[in-house]
Structure formats: C-alpha cells, structure tokens
Amino acid sequence: MRTALTIAGADPSGGAGIQADLKVFEAFGIKGLSAITALTAQDGHAVHAVLPVPPEFLLREITVLLKKYRVDAVKVGMLGTGENAIALAGLFKKTGLKNIVLDTVLASTGGRPLIDEGGAGAVKKLLKYACIVTPNLREASILTGMDIGDLQSMEEAARSIHSLGARSVLVKGGHLAGNPVDVLFDGKRFDYFKGRRLKGNTERFHGTGCILSAGIAASLAKGRGVKKAVEEARERLASILKKR
Question: What domains lie within the chain, and their CATH numbers?
Fold first, then answer.
C-alpha cells in the first residue's frame, strides 16, 4: 500500500491541518502518516492560539516513522517556527525524501500569523526540496516581495519562486477578482486551471489549501505526474466543497 506523510499543525475542528490531510489520504486509498508541528486552538472560523512543537521533537516524530515505513510522498503544511523549517531542510537533505509538496502556510484566513517572525525566510530553504509548492496570492507575495493581483503577476511570481529551487509552482488564484484561476509552472510551460467562484462563509472554505496540497501528495504517492496530481487534487477538493 502506498504511503504519504503529512507534516503539519493539528486542527481540533477537523477541517484543516493534520486531521484534514489524513482524511484526504484515506479517500485516495493510501496509508496516511503524520507528524505534528504545532497544536492550535481553532474552531473553523478563526485560529485563537498556537503552540509550536520544538524542532527536536518534530524530527523525532518523523525519524521514528521513517525507520518503519517507506514514504512515497510528503505534504508539508504549517510549521509554526522557522526553526522547524530549518530542521526539516536538514532532514530532507539527509534522507532524500521524494515527492515533497510544500504548502507555504504563513497566516490564517483571518490574518493571524502561523509562523514566527522571520519564519517565511526559513521556509524558503525548503523550496529546493519541493516537487511542487502551492502558495496562495498572499503567500506568493510574501515569498517574492511582489504585488500579485492578476494573471500576469501570478505568472511572474511563479517564475520567481521556481528560480528559488522548487521544481514546480502552483500559484493559487482563489483571491483573484472574478472566477479563480490557478497557475502551474514547471520551469518550461504554464498550465491554467480555471474554477468557478463559490459562495459561503469562512467555515465552508476552511482548510481548502490543506485539502488541495494533501490531494496532490496522495496522487504523487500513487505515481501520478505533477499536472495529473493537481487535476486529481482539484477534483477531490471540488467534491468536498459541494458537500459543505
């Protein structure tokens, strides 16, 4: 049975983070493993408190799993601290783990920081290990220093993030005006994934980034290519949103 590991924060509401990732892995028919980077107090509408796990313990969580399981893909989400990002970079260099999906979780939908000051710079150290990185517009702006608000600037941001080491970049356009478009860049070509603007409250869209990146990791674990993995993950996310 194929296996995927999620390295992310815990969400007691079950809509995002570790809990959401494991549900997605199960839906794809693969075994899910998890390593928690931070405890959170949240309710589906807002994040009220964050307690990061020390990097030494995070590495312990993962190394214990790697001794027993073959990991076919890794999803990295909320890290909580720059120290955790740096620790993971060292682990990825040492172990050579493949099919790493980096979801650059830097802040909650409500704007609460989900990584400490300077953490975004540390997250950049993970880009060269990523098979694909999946920033939304705000995260892409933080990573590049660019103002991003249209398709052209999304393409420029994708090129910029790719130049930092990621093999593929999916800039998510959920916050664009009008219907959303996600832009995938592999260093040679762009692919565009168009969607339809959905209505709903914050809770309906809680964890969508987690679900998408977990779906990509699950699909990669099953041997799919990056573009196909994005397509399958988007289909899974759409199916989940229809039920909410």
Answer: 3-243 (3.40.1190.20)
